[in-house]
Amino acid sequence: MVTIFRWLVRLTVGLIGLALALVLLAWYFAIRSLPDYDDRYEVAGISAPVEIVRTTEDVPHIFGKTDRDVFFALGLAHAQDRLFQMTVLRRAAQGRLAEIYGPGAIRADDLARRLGLYRNARASLEAQDPQARAALQAYAEGVNAWIGQVNLGARGRGAPEFFLYPEDIAYWEPADSLAVLKLLAASSTVQMRREVLRARLSLADPARGQDLVARPGEPSMPGYAALFPGARFAAPERGAGPQDWTATLAGYLAPSAGATANGFAAAKARTAAGGALLANDPQFALTAPGLWYLARIELASGGVIGGTIPGMPLVLSGRNTRLAWGVTPAQIDDQDLYVEEVQPGDPNRYRGAEGWTAFATRRETLRIRGAEPQTITLRETENGPIIPGAQLDLATVLPAGHVAALSWTGGFGNDRSMSALLALMQAPDRGAAAQALGDLIAPAMIVTLADGAGVGQLLAGAVPRRSPSHQTAGRMPAPGWIAANRWQGLDAAPAAATDLDPESGITAATGAALPGVPGLGHDGDSGYRQARLRHLIDSREVHSRDSFIAAQNDIVSPVARALLPLVGADLWFTDEPAAQGTPERLRQDALALLANWDGAMSEHLPEPLIYAAWMRALQDRLVRDDLGPLADDLTELYPGFIDRVFRDTGGASAWCDIRQSAPVETCTQIARQALDAALLDLTARFGPDLASWRWGDLHRARHVHPALGDMRGLSYIVNLIQPTSGGDATIARAGMLGHGRNPWLNVTGAAYRGVYDLADPDSSVFIISTGQSGHPLSRHYDDMAELWRRGEYVGMSLDPDLARAAAAGVTRLEPAAN
Question: How are cofactors bound according to the entry's free-text note (predicted)?
Answer without folding.
Answer: Binds 1 Ca(2+) ion per dimer.
